[in-house]
Design brief:
Layout: E1 7-14, E2 24-28, E3 32-37, H1 45-56, H2 68-89, E4 100-106, E5 109-115, E6 119-124, E7 127-130, E8 168-173, E9 179-183, H3 185-188, H4 193-202, H5 206-219, E10 226-233
Antiparallel strand pairs: 1-10, 2-3, 3-4, 4-5, 5-8, 6-7, 6-9, 9-10
Length: 234
Amino acid sequence: MTLTVEIHTAGLTHIGQVRRRNEDAFYVGNHLAMVADGLGGHVAGDVASSIVIEAVRSYDQPTPAGQLVDTAVEAIDVANRALQAQIAANQDLAGMGTTLVALLWSGSKVAVANIGDSRIYCYRDHQTTLITDDHVYGHLVSGTTQVPALAGRLTRFLNGRPEGVSADVVLRDLQPGDRYLLCSDGLSSYVPESDIDAAMGSVEDPDMLVERLVGLALDQGGHDNVTVVVVDVR
């Protein structure tokens, strides 16, 4: 018997209390959800995140479950080549880059894709679990905490170049009651995971949940742009 699930989504982004522009972008559709965080301090982070979201959103269409992983890998490659094309057309954009997290689902399966330090959490059985890895030096090299800012520096992200753009893509089963959270580090770097977990388990409506999570980040000072997308499986 094939499991049939119903997906409900919501998304919200906020510039925060400190930044002068919002370098985050997100997308929620019928088969696809994404969050991209343009690299702060780099050239045109907002342009990079928007280009990637626009390139990948064309994959928001029915996809056989057996092709989800290959399709997600292809979509990320297409997004990176879109950055490359824009940089070739305008050298002022050289150096721009962005993270990306995405869910692409079909039936009872979902491909989970990640590159950078944006995150995806899954709330299942009354517990929130981080299901992506941050691609930062702190996870690769010992002693990085002794070097200012090195531990949090990205090791992988989309920047229009072929090297360093290998995303993690895994296939998961969707279970009724699952709740997925995609977010930029404007949430995960400032709001304790215990507070995220409490909100995930107590706010039933996805639209109200994204407002609650963004509000938690703003309550912590809103030091960064913050973007959240919630995907409920019913």
